[in-house]
Every structure is written in structure tokens, then in C-alpha cells.
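Narrative of activities, Objective 1.

The group set out to show that a structural description can be obtained from nothing but a protein's sequence at a throughput compatible with the screening campaign. Below is one input-output pair from the validation batch, recorded exactly as produced.
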Amino acid sequence: MSKKLQVIILIVLSLLITVTITACSTTSWKAKSRLNNPTQIEVHENYLYFLDTYSTIKIYDRGTIYDLTSWLPEGFRKENTIMDFAVVNPSKIAALTGSSLYLIDVQKKEIKKIFSDKDNFTSMDLDQKGNIYLISAKQVLRITPEGEKSLLFAFENLPSDQRQEDAYFSRIFVGKNDHLFVELHKRIPFSNIVFELDGRGNITDTYDLRKIIEKSFSTTSAARILDYQDFSLFIVDTRGKLYKYRPGTGSLRKLFDVALGDFHYWRVIDLVKISDDFDEYVLLVTDSDTGNFTRVWKLLKDGTPVGNFISTEVTRD
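Output recorded for this entry:
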């Protein structure tokens, strides 16, 4: 064998080894999996992310589900429940576990606590600058990318007629121009009021979800926010109907109102927009009879739902 041929063979082998190592390094941080009972869905760079059974974060990548957090320590899994999460970038995820906020680096397989407090936080969101917003029953906090904490809004800042003793903040969403939408849950009367805040924490507008729906559809069902996307608030009422409301114009459109079969109904618990061109959404829908069965549906522009868009382990026919 000539030296020239030997050199060529060595080069080819080295390239094969490099390709193999690269392939392993890009897949070792995610394990092939399935969806069981997802409770939250997010979208980032055309990839769908799911919070599954409040314990794992998974990604839908070209027809396959991968578990991004299967490597988390067993102690962390036993002691913590992931209540909410946000995708910072393709390799980093912020996860809220009640009183603590963690940054998970899925590629390096590292988890770091970046904030902890005695309060219990139930909802979070992320703005384009990397600031994370946390909401507890009585306050809204802003955490900068450097980890600095500041109180943005407190229960005492509400108008006096909204400060009922048993009322509490329930959800938070980042809107356009870093405005925030903070949902206040009131028990008497049972309703949800949404306050729009500017970047300084000042109230710029107020939305009574029940009255917004009643004005256009003559129904009086209680309602809550699912998300803010496409310059719109997505609202679901207690009957399972899904609406798209544009605060800027005041327009309200019903997106989803369908019974599946003759015996039970499904209600939407979360959604993301996946196509600007076709105005399509992916929905998490759960069995309203028991709340124990979740499916992933796709909602087409004309309002037609495509059932079982992504299969889940726990389903109901």
C-alpha cells in the first residue's frame, strides 16, 4: 500500500470519527421519549416544548419527542414540582418550582438556582431582554439576566375597589413593548380581571374578561387567560370555548367550540401559535369530565381541530 493511499485512508477515518463524535454530542443531552400528560406548551424557533406531568420538559423535534431533563438528579425530582417554564434559548430553560427559580442548561446537563424566596410563585414569563417575571398571590417580581430582583407591582397598587381580601394574582404574560398582563382572580363575585402594566409597573388598562365575552356573545361564563400571542389575549371560559381578543382594537373572535363524540367535552388548557402564514395553533385539550386525559390538537385557520396531532400515553377515545 502506497504512503499516499495510507494518508487518504487516515484522513477519511479521522473525518468519520469526527462526524461520529459530533453526532453523539448533539444527541446525548436529549433522550427519546413520549408525552404522558402535558400541562404546558411553549414554542421557540419552530420547536414545541412541553411540561409533562409537572416533572419533565420535553421537545417535539421532527416527529419525535425527546426528554430534555431526564438527567436531573433524583433528589431534585422528589423535592420539586415544576409549575411553569420558559425557553430562554435552545439550550437553556428557566423553570419555576414554587418558591425557587432554576436555570437548566440541557446541553451541559447543569441546573442552577438563580432565585429563591419565602413566597410561593405560580406563574412566570420572559421578555425579549431576558428579564423573567414571577407572580405570587400578592406581588409581581422582575428578575434581570444578572439575577437582580425588583418589586414591579404589588397588591397594594391595585385600585381600592379591586383589593378584596380573598383576591389574588394568578397568571402573568409578557405583551408587546414589554407590557405585562397580570390576571387577578376574585372569588366574590367569581371573576378574573386583567391589568395591563407598562415597564415601570403602572396600570395602563383594565380588562374584565367576563364582560368582554358577554358584550359580544351574550354569555356570562367566568373566563381566564391562556396566553398572550400575536398581539392578542387568548381567553377560555368555563364552558371550554376559546376566544382571541385584541386589546388594541377591542375585537373578539371565537376560535374553538366543539364537542368530541356524544359523551364528553374537551376544554383547552394551553396553546401556542405555530404558523403566521396559515394562522394555525397547537392546543393542549383535556377531558372536562375528569381532567385526567390530555391530548395535543392542531387548530386550523378555519377553526377545524385536528385531533391527536401529537400522541400522548394517556388518551381517551
